[in-house]
Design goal:
One of its GO terms (cellular component) is membrane. By secondary structure, this protein is of the alpha+beta class. The chain contains six helices and eleven strands.
């Protein structure tokens, strides 16, 4: 019995079983969130996990451009690969990759919402792939002829994906509206928050309210602290209420999908079903292969 070979085969089949099962469950869970979360209008969206659909708008003074093509956009993702050969086969190895951290703005008929793309599964419709002989296609390289000849043997593949202003966008994530005008005011909680903030600088608190310089706050002095904190909390609330509401969508704090896609919900759901099926087949294949190896090799 070839024990090392059996161990390697079991590792592959077990990996297919575990990985396929995990992928199937992941896509089914995401599919459930997509189908169970109704699409909301931005103006009337409830606070919390929300699904939105609208058009991307370019933010004022935004100058986002694709790093490999230089084309204007509102979000990008890129990858640079180099073709390498060991004499028998050629393969592409990743050299650089990255994605934009610029905020997006989604607009529907009722309002606008800013989106922080950090942590999102972004699925853009625009994807360009091409190849060349320079590592960075936009970088101006002043090379002499000899260096150009030395570089001619290398081959690079570039991939750039982009979202553009005016394109439709499906977004699902954590929706929050900031600004006290959109939130209830709890005087006791706001007062407590101010007092905790002041207590973090206790020396400053003593300097302001310790009138007898005893090094501690007596009952009467604590009463003045509470009165001043209540006044400060009310002032902060009025200032926040005067500011316009700001809608934001970001990555949920819980294990819920955060997806930004140029494709609609129906197309996403169809893709998730097929991917879940593929994961289930891998899981089943890994289980059958493991069972066959155990029964026939041991």
């Amino acid at each position: 019995m070839d024990v090392p070979g059996l161990a390697i085969s079991l590792a592959f089949s077990g990996g297919a079983f575990v990985g396929g099962g995990w992928w199937c469950l992941r896509r089914l869970t995401q599919l459930r969130f997509l189908l169970d979360t109704p699409t909301s209008k931005i103006r009337s969206a409830a606070q919390g996990y929300t699904e939105l659909y609208g058009l991307l708008r370019e933010l004022p003074q935004s100058q986002v451009r694709g790093p490999l093509t230089g084309k204007p956009c509102v979000w990008w993702r890129f990858k640079i690969e180099e073709q390498r050969s060991d004499g028998k086969q050629r393969e592409w190895r990743s050299l650089e990759s990255g994605s934009s951290d610029a905020w997006l703005e989604l607009e529907d008929a009722t309002g606008a919402c800013l989106i922080n793309p950090h942590g999102a599964e972004v699925r853009p419709s625009t994807r360009e792939v091409w190849s060349g002989k320079q590592r960075h296609p936009l970088r101006v390289q002043q090379q002499n002829r000899l260096l150009g000849l030395l570089n001619s043997g290398r081959r690079y593949r570039y991939t750039e994906e982009r979202l553009h202003a005016g394109e439709p966008l499906y977004a699902i994530g954590e929706f929050r509206t900031t600004g006290a005008s959109q939130q209830g005011f709890d005087p006791a909680a706001a007062q407590g928050a101010v007092i905790r903030e002041w207590k973090s600088d206790f020396a400053g608190l003593l300097q302001r309210f310790d009138q007898d310089a005893s090094g501690q706050l007596e009952d009467a002095e604590w009463q003045r602290v509470r009165q001043a904190a209540a006044t400060e909390a009310a002032v902060r609330h009025r200032q926040a209420a005067a500011a316009p509401a700001r809608n934001e969508l970001r990555k949920p704090s819980e294990a819920q999908p955060f997806i930004l896609s140029s494709k609609g919900e129906d197309e996403l759901a169809r893709g998730f079903r097929w991917q879940a099926l593929a994961g289930a087949l891998f899981c089943l294949g890994g289980a059958l292969a493991s069972a066959w190896l155990v029964n026939n090799q041991l």
